[in-house]
């Protein structure tokens, strides 16, 4: 997996916080409706950030009824962890 796109996607503080919030969930997934409540941003702005994270491969998504659920891509996070842990 290419690391540069992952780091670029996480370079924005909102996107970094989104990944952190999703990863902190017990099942490592959450509904987009719950993410909107955590920010003082419009729903389209949150959706844009989620799309960037999904396109970079950091998040996976599934549609359930009218809601979209996002989960972390553990392989991508593992690649980042290996990169960051390998230099210490």
Structural class: alpha+beta
Reported for the largest beta sheet, the result is:
3 strands, antiparallel
Total tally of structural domains: 1
For the record, give the distance between the C-alpha atoms at the N and C termini, rounded to a whole number: 21 Å
Residues in helices, as a percent range: 55-70%
Series of H and E elements = HHEHHEEH
Radius of gyration: 13 Å
Describe this entry's structure for a reader.
- Helix 2 crosses helix 4.
- The protein has a single domain (4-86), classed as Arc Repressor Mutant, subunit A, CATH 1.10.10.10.
- The model has no long low-confidence stretch (mean pLDDT 89).
- It has 88 residues and is of the alpha+beta class.
- It is built from five helices and three strands.
- It has a three-stranded antiparallel beta sheet with strand order 1-3-2.
- The radius of gyration is 13 Å and the shape is globular.
- Strand 2 and strand 3 form a beta hairpin.
